[in-house]
Amino acid sequence: MTQLKVFSFGGGQQSMAALVLAAEKRIDFPTFLFANVGDDSEHPATIEYFHNYARPFAAEHGLELVELRRVMKRTGEERTLLQQLKRPGYRSIDIPARMANGAPGNRKCTGDFKIKVIGDELVRRGATEDNPATVGVGISLDEIGRANDRRRLPHELVVYPLLELGLRRTDCQRIIRSAGLPLPRKSACFFCPFKRPGEWLDMRREEPELFEQSAQLEGLLNKRRAELGRDPVWLTRFAGPLREVIPAGIDVLPFLDGGDGSCDGGWCHT
Q1: What is the pLDDT of the chain when averaged over all its residues?
Q2: What confidence score (pLDDT) does residue 255 get?
Q3: From the CB of residue 123, how many other CB atoms can be counted at a distance below 10 Å?
Q4: How far is CA 198 from the centre of its chain?
Q5: Between 2 and 140, the higher pLDDT residue
Q6: What's the CA dihedral at 78, 104, 214, 150 to 10 degrees?
Q7: What 8-state DSSP symbol labels residue 144?
Q8: How many C-beta neighbours within 10 Å does residue 179 have?
Q9: Which of 233, 201, 205, 229 is nearest to 219 (CA)?
Q10: Which end of the chain is more exposed for a tag (fewer CB within 10 A), N or C?
């Protein structure tokens, strides 16, 4: 039986570089699967790039680039991550919102809206535990520490073709540009709590509507937390409302913009 080979396409630079490498026959992945957590949840620039550049490029080079969405098994309805978070009476917080100490909380979003969605598609295409699908994940050499951080499903064999080629993020950028394509932004939900402080500042200055939507989501989550007698959660590590900890009208934040960690691991940000 022929083994199914797919690449998990996150919409960012590593995934786009992998698509170019597949077009150049440097890696053997005929199918790319993009688990879209929702047009209302992914950053709009990621959705725009997918439709304007990634999908046409794949079609031009005979590659299959498939957009997948989460479908609720009991009702058959599609549901986005933002819709899930806003559902009346929904008590879970499926994103890694920050606790009072700045540590991220539960992170069901990647599992439910990325890994499981792709896993279900693999089963639909014939993958089994005895004949698992090979799934390429876009981790580059400068992020090698995260290569074993991805949960594997029984019908998957996860591989890292960019690591095998010794490629770094800068190499991925060069590969994309060499194909005549613009660079995509780092892919993520626009309200992702793993966003760096400087990214929040840029959003408040350059994309105020998205910033306000994020602040409203944070407020909704904490309204529910208060009703349940629970401590508040935040979208940054600074344990305060987004509008207050990311002030308007400044160019530089008065604290270090260090990395917060991220789900930049082949499923959200690549």
Answers
A1: 91
A2: 55
A3: 12
A4: 19
A5: 140
A6: -40
A7: G
A8: 17
A9: 233
A10: N
Residue 243's CB is within 10 A of a number of other CB atoms, namely 16
| Closest by CA position to 8, among listed 230, 188, 269, 253 | 269
**Could you give the CA distance from residue 16 to residue 187 in angstroms, rounded to a whole number?**
11
Q: Cβ-count burial of 42 within 10 angstroms (0-12 exposed, 13-18 middle, 19+ buried)?
A: buried
Distance in angstroms (rounded) separating the CA atoms of residues 143 and 13:
13
Which candidate, 132, 185, 175, places its Cα nearest to that of 154? 132
37 closest CA partner among 102, 94, 76, 104:
94
For tokens 């990647």, the residue is 110
Q: Is 227 exposed, middle or buried (0-12, 13-18, 19+ CB in 10 A)?
A: exposed
* pLDDT tens digits for range 139-161: 999 888 777 655 678 999 999 99
Per the CB < 8 A criterion, the answer to whether 105 and 98 are in contact is yes
Helix intervals (H) in the chain: 13-23, 44-49, 55-60, 81-86, 108-110, 116-124, 161-164, 169-178, 197-206, 208-227, 242-245
Q: What is the DSSP string of 15-58?
A: HHHHHHHHHTTSS---EEEEE---TTTB-HHHHHHIIIIIHHHH
Paired residues of 242 in beta bridges: none
> Does position 131 have pLDDT exceeding 70, yes or no?
yes
**141, 162 Cβ separation under 8 angstroms:** yes
- Asked whether the beta carbons of 140 and 175 are under 8 A apart, the reply is no
